[in-house]
Amino acid sequence: MTKIRLLTTSILFFLSFFLFSQEQQRVGNLMSIAIEAKAQKFKERTNFNKAQMFFRQSNWDSTLVYSMKEISNVKNKELKDFCHYFRGISFKEKKLFKESKEELRKISNNFPFFYKVKMKLGEIALEQNELKNALQYFQEIEKLPNEFVYDIKNSTVLHNIGLCYLHLNKFDKAEEYLFKGANLQEAEKDTLLLIGSYMDIATLYYDQYKDKQAIPYFEKGYHLSKKVKSLELKQTATLNMAVVEENRKNFPLALAYRKEYEAWKDSLNDQNKVWAIADLEKKFALKEKQKEVNVLEAKNKVKIAERNGLLISSILLLILFVTGGYFYRQKIRNNKIILAQKNELDELNAAKDRLFSIVSHDLRASVSALKISNTKLIENLESKNFAELDVLLHNNSMIANGAYNLLDNLLNWALLQTKQAYFYQEPLQLYTIIQHVEYNYKPLMLNKNIHFENKVATSDFVYADLDSLKIIIRNVLDNAIKFSKENGKISIYSRPSDEDFCYLVIEDTGVGMSTETKEILLKETVLLSRKKNDDGIGTGLGMQLCRTMIFKNGGKFEIESEENIGTKIIIILPKANNNG
Fold first, then answer.
1. Smallest Cα–Cα separation from 221: which of 191, 254, 246?
2. Mind listing the pLDDT tens digit for each residue in 279-322?
3. Are 225 and 195 in contact (CB under 8 A)?
4. What is the pLDDT, as a whole number, of residue 524?
5. Residue 482 parent element (H or E)
6. Whole-number Å distance between alpha carbons of 510 and 490
7. Distance CA 250, CA 283 (A)
């Protein structure tokens, strides 16, 4: 008898906690409304909004991540309280009770739902069998003023107090509160919780060996379980009735309840049982007809063999065809790739050969011109023709400057091709850099009496590599001087733009260029072009170098030009914050 009673108590104790867990899953309307209001008020708090969204979706892991991020950054005490509440509930749902208590205890007393914090702390204490602590929390909630609306069920609070007294063996108090909770649940027509209350009341009487008082509540719980879909409740209620009847020595009825219990227990496996029975019937039918099958089997063997042979042959032919087609397509594709790579390599080699040819020709022409000029210089020095000496010295300076620029561009081009160039992007002021480049080219502009204007605003900043930006501006300005006539004009300014790019324009009044020349310079290729001007033959290497460096800085390159009118080289680079 004692053994059966302990079994029943154990079962009912489990059931009480099952119902208690059901209550945990309910999200109160008042808190939900309050959370939504906070989310609307603090729309800019991204982490809080994500935390509350995941909390309402019961996504506990994501709630923990974003609530922690918000706590680390927010100073608003109320938002912090909500985040600690989110974390406390998330840890509780994940059965991490120690962490849950730590988070809940961090919530201030001014939190509008502090009574829910106490409720959750009481539930955790009850889970951990800290009955006195749990009782203290639930009693504090019971004493709340009645004039306010709360986001918890009073029947649940009373029921939990009754459970605490029950497991503390204070049966009078347990009876009082369990009945209070059950009466409220009857009024609220909360069948699930009411079944649990009936079972707990029955346990209360059973623990005191008051079987006559306990049994009616077992029966009430059993009859109510018929109205719910919870398989677990049906099993527990039926098992309790079986134990009751065994205690009363009513073994036939106890056996009926045991069978019903087993039926509920096995209901999840009913479908498998049906399939097993059907399989047995099928085997029996097959056995009965085996003789007929044996007769037909001999006739079908030949047909099956022929059919299988044909099927296998067809499959093999299909596999052979698909494999052959695949390898043929792969061969064609590989040949196309090889051919494209060969053509690209031929173009690269042609560009390399052309580069060496043009550079060597230009260097030879520069050295030859310098040699002839130096011979004349010596002759005029002997004859003391100082006017001619001045002209020859300026000429030598221009030849040396051209040769130096060619070699400098060649070096930078080689560094880019071999990926050895140092590259670091940072905010740069355009006006200052143009001033530096202008200073280096001022003698050349004075020699041709070219008027220069730097109209770039001091507020224009770009995000680029300093060395490559100087090379770009230097090459474009060198070309502008080279192709400008005597008494020409060069202007550098920036176009207004609402985009994230700065448009730097270098405009000259030189000879301009044809449409064909523009297309060659803008073409994405390493092939160079030769162009003639008053100073000799150029390689086009400088413009190709500029285009490559502009693209590397994340910019774009445009040309506007008309022959005999002038040229606008437009360098488009990302803007930068002038605060650095």
1. 191
2. 566 566 667 767 776 777 787 888 888 888 888 988 988 898 88
3. yes
4. 63
5. helix 466-482
6. 9
7. 42
Q: End-to-end alpha-carbon separation of the chain, Å?
A: 86
DSSP state of 223: H
Going by DSSP bridges, is the β-strand pair 566-574/501-508 parallel, antiparallel, or unpaired?
A: antiparallel
How big is the chain, counted in residues? 580
Q: Give just the sign of the alpha carbon dihedral 89, 93, 99, 100.
A: positive
Six token digits for residue 447:
């020699």
> Residue with structure tokens 């039918």?
285
The residues, any chain, with a CB within 8 Å of residue 440's CB and separated by 6 or more, are 474
Q: Quick check: 195 and 221 in contact, CB under 8 A?
A: yes
CA distance 3 to 7: 6
**CA 483 to CA 536: how far, in whole Å?**
11
**Whether 484 contacts 510, CB under 8 Å:** yes
Contact status, residue 201 vs residue 178, Cβ threshold 8 Å:
yes
- On the question of pLDDT at 490 being above 90, the answer is yes
Residue with tokens 């959370």: 35
* Closest of 394, 568, 401 to residue 490, by C-alpha: 568
- In three-state secondary structure terms, 487 is coil
pLDDT for 193 equals: 83
* Global model pTM greater than 0.70: no
Range 176-179 contact pairs with CB under 8 angstroms and sequence separation of 24 or more: 178/204
Tokens 């227990």 — which residue? Answer: 265
DSSP assignment string, 329-393? HHHHHHHHHHHHHHHHHHHHHHHHHHHHHHHHHHHHHHHHHHHHHHHHHHHHHHHT-HHHHHHHH
The secondary element (H helix, E strand) that includes residue 528 is: none
Residue 529 has pLDDT above 50, yes or no: no
Radius of gyration of the chain (CA): 46
